[in-house]
Amino acid sequence: MEKKLKQLLKTIKFNESMLSMLFGVVTVVLIGVLVFRLYQTNKPEITSQAVDTEIAMEKVGEVPVETKEDGKKYPTELVEKVTVAKGDNLWKIAEKNYGSGYNWVDIAKENKLANAGVIEVGQELKLPKTAVRVVEKKQVAVAPKTSLPAIAGDSYTVVKGDHLWNVAVRAYGDGYKWVTIAKANNLNNPGYIEVGQKLKLPR
User: Fold this and answer.
1) Which of 50, 75, 104, 185 could form a disulfide with 90 if both were Cys (CB 3.0 to 4.6 A apart)?
2) Residue 53 confidence (pLDDT) above 50
3) pLDDT, position 15
4) Is the dihedral of CA 182, 183, 187, 188 positive or negative?
5) How far apart are CA 39 and CA 9, in angstroms?
């Protein structure tokens, strides 16, 4: 067999050094294929744990949250209690600790506050371990029929019987926009507005 191979090589004008080089190239290629297959076999897979870590790094506003089995987002660094500081209201406290001001409802319920619009400096409030409240589009209120005229300008003067919800409904067609009005006017207590008070209405 070896003689036949040598005769064949002579016929096609291959000498032994050329043959050694050819075998060397084939060997390198085979080793390369084996290394590639070995890497593919031991290649690390993206596990659900890695995905969970990525989810845990999500944020709502400035608050880090994690998505739990129920599909809801929960703050990961929620403290048990907060002390009310000057200028605080439940909306601000909820926004700071949950990433959503709408969680003021949970804080009021947890602390059994008779009037959620009245909290005092130095007062301690418990923060319940609850999901971040997110208002979806389908939950947004449509302006109900009202005898009161719509508000078209970029400001409004409060009259008797007004509250931020009905002003928002008349100005934007969406009661939840009361938050926008409260922020634009730096209202420390959104539950209290005075007759004659002039409110800015961002457009």
Assistant:
1) 104
2) no
3) 58
4) positive
5) 37
